[in-house]
Amino acid sequence: MHERRRGRTTTTVIDKVIVVLFCLLGGEQRECPKELKGKEGFSFEDRVSQKVYEHIRAYPVTVLPPRSTLTYPTVSGLKHQFDVILMDGKTFYLIECKKRGIAVIDQVFSFNSKILDYALKDVFTKDFRVKGIFLCTAEINDNIRKYALAYSILPVDPSLPPIQVMIDRTQEEDSLLQELVELKQHIMLPLPDAMKLQQNRHELFHRFMLSYQKWRSRGYE
Fold first, then answer.
1. Per-residue confidence at 42, pLDDT binned at 50, 70, 90?
2. CA-CA distance, 211 to 36, in Å (whole number)?
3. What number of CA atoms fall less than 13 Å from residue 101's CA on the CB side?
4. How deeply is 137 buried, as exposed, middle or buried, from its count of CB atoms within 10 A (0-12, 13-18, 19+)?
5. How many Å apart are CA 34 and CA 137, to the nearest integer?
6. What pLDDT is stored for residue 36 in this prediction?
7. Residues whose CB falls within 8 Å of the CB of residue 123, separated by 6 or more in sequence, listed in order
8. What is the rounded average pLDDT for all residues in the chain?
9. What is the DSSP letter of 189?
10. CA–CA gap between residue 6 and residue 81 (Å, rounded)
11. Measuring CA to CA, which residue among 111, 209, 206 is closest to residue 153?
12. CA–CA separation, 137 vs 30, rounded Å?
């Protein structure tokens, strides 16, 4: 990954992209109605996918046009389409864009099943990595966030800043900064690496929420 030093922290291109995506979501939430159904909802998701693609093109990563199919081998032999696919080094970042009045966990189940179809294939266990990003204008509830983090999917919604945004807004002299940086390393582990470590992935949600409460209590927002 391309990296930039910021005091004691290291900022990657992907970190910058995630900060931009969080800001993009805030703008979309203000501009659009809370509930979109049917074709109108799909049209919205197409538009957001296009915006995400255009924003990412400004960064030194490889990004495919919206709704591209990842043609690498899978366990099932099927090939899956994603809203946005970008590659940094040998890591694929697969982005799912959702606009719903309420985010439902089945959306993340479906997204994760496609990711695992690639991540469990031997070409990924040996040479490549894959990381999911679930981008949603609706508020993501605790169960969705817990499941996503456990399976190495980064949830991004307007209600809680992702770890990259928290780091970006934390003063360098704050002792909390290093805690956030260390947590980011665990949250951003791609598959299959994240599943190989001997750790309880479900604890990431609790660690994230605890860090967020500390961060907010210091007046960051």
1. low
2. 33
3. 7
4. buried
5. 9
6. 44
7. 72, 73
8. 87
9. P
10. 36
11. 111
12. 10
Tell me the pLDDT band of 8, cut-offs 50, 70 and 90. Answer: very low
Say if CB 143 and CB 104 are below 8 A apart.
no
**CATH number of this structure's domain 3-217, picked from the four choices 3.40.50.12780, 3.40.50.620, 3.40.1350.10, 3.20.20.70:** 3.40.1350.10
HSE-up (13 A, CA, CB side) for residue 79: 7
Return the structure tokens found at 174: 């704050």
Q: Crossing angle for the helix pair 176-187 and 203-217, nearest 10 degrees? A: 150
At 69 the pLDDT is: 97
What gap in Å lies between CA 81 and CA 17, rounded to an integer? 21
Q: Give the C-alpha separation, 176 to 186, whole Å.
A: 16
Instruction: Tell me whether strands 91-98 and 129-136 are parallel, antiparallel or unpaired.
Output: parallel
- HEC profile of 78-146: CCEEECEEEEECCEEEEEEEECCCCCCHHHHHHHHHHHHHHHCCHHHHHCCEEEEEEEECCCCCHHHHH
Nearest of 179, 186, 113, 114 to residue 149 by alpha carbon: 186
User: Residue 154: which H helix or E strand, with range?
Assistant: strand 153-156
Residue 100 has pLDDT above 70, yes or no: no
